Amino acid sequence: MSDKIVETSTDKTNYGPNYIGNVIRILDEYTLIVNAGFSRLYKGDKIVVYTIVEPIIDLDGSVLSMYEYPKDVLEVVETNSNYSVCQKKDTKTVDSGVLGSLTLSPLFGVKEERIPLNVNKEDISPLKEVNPQIQIGDPIKLLRPRKK
Hints:
- The protein is mostly beta strands.
- The chain has a domain at 9-91 and 132-142: Thrombin, subunit H.
- The chain has helices spanning 9-15, 98-104; strands at 19-26, 31-34, 46-57, 63-79, 84-87, 139-142.
- It has a six-stranded antiparallel beta barrel with strand order 1-2-5-4-3-6.
- β1 and β2 form a beta hairpin.
- The longest helix has 7 residues, at 9-15.
- The two termini are 26 Å apart.
């Protein structure tokens, strides 16, 4: 059996130029298996699970690319010849209640608010809604593609 990767032009057409594989199994709520092995991924690489949403059209009407909605970023924790195991490594601080937040935050009561862009509201054209859940078959790409 050969370890050679066969990639069709349909893959790049359907999933974009940075496509390297797909989610093939969900082991638990932190861990996925993807069909890209050590010829494409290294332990420690970061991958993005994404979905294609719709074309991005330039002012002249030409299609620039397809918009790729990022569902999540995972780290490669194990690679084999034909697949890799990837995990969500992010953590968050869990609020320990009112007393904990008072003792840990000297700026209690300060709230940040986003300042909107000064745009013509008639020009706003949101992208269609997508399912943000990771599913088997979702494409993957490197977070930052390596230079060739």
